Sequence to fold (206 residues):
Amino acid sequence: MVIKIIYSTLMLIILHTNLAEAQNICDISYQSTHTGRNVSVHYGYTLGRHNILLGLKYHINRTPIDNQNHVFYKRFRAMNFKEHIGLDLNYQFLFRNKSVSWRPLIFYNFQCTNTPIQRYGYTWRLLPGGGQRGLVKTENISQPIRAIEHYIGLGFSYAISEQIKLIEKAGVGINFYKNLDKEFFPLKTSAWEISKMLSVGISYSW
Fold:
């Protein structure tokens, strides 16, 4: 339902904009989201004050450094190249501004990946050598889980030159998780969480 609304909105923007005036745009971004960190590459069009971009993201594996026992937050870990790759869709609306060097913007971001989560814990086991029992850290990897991320937020576009711009964004949203591993989640097949994201990138238009 959400995807249909977004698609319909983007189509209305395209139909009500002179495509002859559209500019090509590509960018590369570094993002910190609820599922982890990633690098994304997009290509799309600037239609008036609207930027519409579609691309791919590469999930960066990183061992969690917190001890908050989160289930999904920063817990996604790709085990092969396919699980590193995800879909990334961006829409940005730039406001008019008296300054030619920077413009505020609002954005919507959609991301989708199919990646396992890692779970850390501690269990009592016999320690090597002395036959004593102690706490040993354990790590379990789930089956791939589909993470569908929706974010909205604010940001700005800063003109480095006429064609090159620095873009920074921060937003909040909601994440949906489907195809949950039965060994990790025996009582449910899906879940959701409130989420947040930060993004910094460089765009080039022509």
